[in-house]
Design brief:
This protein is of the alpha+beta class. It has helices at residues 17-22, 34-45, 62-68, 90-101, 118-129, 146-157, 174-181, 207-218, 235-246, 263-274, 291-302, 319-335, and strands at 3-6, 12-16, 50-51, 58-59, 78-79, 86-87, 106-107, 114-115, 134-135, 142-143, 162-163, 170-171, 195-196, 203-204, 223-224, 231-232, 251-252, 259-260, 279-280, 287-288, 307-308, 315-316.
């Protein structure tokens, strides 16, 4: 007797030839076990017989209604042992714990960005496709969720609805407030970076980011610029590189409108609005918005001056300073010409 040994969700469940006839959906032809067929049919008919008595939202099965009812219950029995925050569902607690551990299992196969939740990855990948669902009525900018659109509109209206409960500072975006509140948290610690490059020692939070980084050492490249033939290690790197030729600045600051060729440059710029300075000197405690600025600053403590003038051999802490210095030599030569 022929048997189909998997149900609709991939679980092992033997279905005989006879059952295939009786348990086959008349709408799409899918074969399911009898207990799941009735619920499946409701996807086609739109029938939702299970209704929430509190808010009136309807569902096609009792399990979904039971899960929904949790939002009306004020009890939060699942507590994070690290920060004390409480949740209504164990799945919410599991996702929350990843914030403390730095664990991000869902990695974008296009640019290597990683996320705690799969839903965040799904929304992120849409950005690569520019598949906007919502548009601002003022500036026509596109967004993927209604929440993003609503927060963006605060820029046009001047509203700052997200206020710090410690110092009362307000922001137009919820994520701006979240970044700001870290300053008030005495237990705020950075997530542990676990994935280290065996060649240069650089450490990453996600394995996917390490994989992309390794290509910079191996020379492995999958993407080539059609303008100058330069080879890049990722599709995201190619996209940013091409903008150098086209002068396209696709990443725009929602606060001031300034545009950048990459999201990384935009992220650094946005710190001028949020006040975030994540890179701190371990010698004097001074903080900076960019890692490169911190690197130069620390050389004043160590005395390291890796950049040398080719004319007079004077040394400097940064390439910018040595370039500015060399102009004084060039200016002197022009005087006697």
């Amino acid at each position: 007797m022929d048997k189909d040994c998997r149900d609709s969700v991939g679980n092992l469940k033997c279905i005989s030839s006879k059952e295939k006839c009786t348990n086959k959906c008349e709408f799409c032809g899918k074969v399911l076990i009898k207990s799941k067929l009735l619920i499946h049919r409701r996807m086609h008919t739109g029938e939702k017989p299970f209704v929430c008595v509190v808010c009136g939202v309807a569902f096609n099965c009792n399990g979904k209604l039971t899960s929904h009812m949790v939002i009306h219950n004020e009890k939060r029995p699942y507590e994070c042992e690290m920060c004390g925050r409480k949740f209504k569902r164990p799945s919410e607690l599991r996702d929350h714990r990843k914030i403390h551990t730095g664990e991000k299992d869902h990695v974008c196969d296009i640019c290597g960005s990683a996320f705690i939740q799969k839903s965040n990855l799904v929304n992120h990948r849409k950005r690569h496709l520019s598949n906007y669902k919502f548009h601002c009525g003022v500036c026509t900018k596109g967004f993927y969720t209604n929440t993003e659109l609503q927060e963006h509109q605060n820029i046009h209206t001047g509203e700052k609805p997200f206020q710090c409960d410690v110092c009362s500072k307000a922001y137009p975006y919820k994520h701006n407030l979240a970044l700001h509140k870290r300053k008030h948290d005495p237990n705020n610690t950075l997530p542990v970076k676990k994935h280290q490059c065996e060649i240069c020692g650089k450490v990453f939070l996600q394995r996917g980011s390490l994989t992309l980084h390794m290509r910079t050492h191996t020379g492995e490249s999958y993407y080539t610029c059609s303008i100058c033939d330069k080879a890049l290690s990722s599709k995201a790197s190619l996209m940013v590189h091409v903008r150098i030729h086209t002068r396209e600045k696709a990443d725009v600051c929602d606060v001031c409108g300034k545009a950048f060729i990459s999201r990384e440059y935009l992220k650094v710029h946005q710190r001028t609005h949020t006040g975030e300075k994540p890179h701190t000197c371990d010698h004097c405690g001074k903080s900076f918005t960019q890692r490169s600025t911190l690197t130069v600053h620390k050389r004043y403590h160590t005395g390291q001056k890796p950049y040398q003038c080719e004319v007079c051999n004077k040394c400097f802490v940064s390439k910018t300073l040595v370039r500015n210095h060399q102009k004084s030599h060039n200016h002197g030569q022009n005087i006697f010409l």
